[in-house]
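task queued by scheduler; priority normal; single chain, no ligands, no partner chains; default sampling; output format set to structure tokens
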Amino acid sequence: MYKTVVSYIRQLPEDEVSKLENTQSVCMYHYRIRSCSCILCGCFTSSNFTDEISAARAELGRLEKRENELLKQLADTRAAAQAQRRRLEDLVRSGKPPINRLPVESLLQIIGLAIRASPSDDLSCNRINQIRRKGELAGVSRHWRNLIFGCPNLWTEITLAQRLSPSVVHMHAIRSRTCLIDVYIDAWYRDSNKLYLGEMLDAVVACVSRWRTFTVLTSSCQEVFSLIFRSIDGLCFSCLSSVDIPAELFPDGGPQAGYQRCFQPQNIPRLKHAVLHTQYDDIDVPLGLETLSLTLHRYCNEPRSSRSAIPIFLSLQTLKVLSLSGNISHWRLQPNSINLPLLEKITLRLVSGPGSF
């Protein structure tokens, strides 16, 4: 093909050949320029690409270094957290339970509330259940047992009941130490256990100077009632502030002589609240009495002496609550003869004759 082109050029006129030579020169010029441009562009393109790669590699290196630092920091944090978790578990295992970290006073208050919880309306059952709950709570831990056995205030309520043994009463009398005690004598419906009752009475009589309240529940056994008042006959209740003896303890015969002697003002100097029963209305009561519930048993038709015209308890300056029941047919009260300046409440269940009251 080259030869064909050369032959064709030789056949051309001279002026055409000159034009062709000029065209060839121009083409060669443009070709050289284009070649140089391509070379220059290639050089510039290769340099930018290398810079981008270097920059990308540098950024990757920085990120990988940061990744390694964060992974090391995460590993260190996990190790520290695991160590702290083990330390916390060791502290929990070696430390006291939360209930034992309470102040002793707060824990004793909680235990006292648990002991005195009263799910039943039967007061006798509740008192016996309280004794059982003391034993149950004392078995929770050695700490609780030491607290319960060493707190005298948890042993101040002493119940004398047929279902309990004398040792329980002795235990309460000892563990109450020097605290004032509340004595409850439960209902004894038979005298077959009078021996047990005698032992219980001996235990509480030994600390009669600490009696704060004395309550006798209803009993249909007169022998038991007589035993109670034979045991306390002639005693002085120096701290007794409340006494409660129901009227059912006096069937068909009135109060016992021991009862009359025990509850004289000189034997109960601090008495504030009383539920008493007497055959005659000239009973002496402490002058500082605030609450009096009195049942009058009248077993003779002959009127008493003029002393009973104005009973002393109708002139108590400190009396706030008065409840009277029984026979007052012999009373002969004059207008304005009752002087009770602090009286707030009075309840009367009386049997009286014409014009007596």
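post-processing summary
- Residues 49 and 194 are 116 Å apart (CA to CA).
- The chain has a mean pLDDT of 79.
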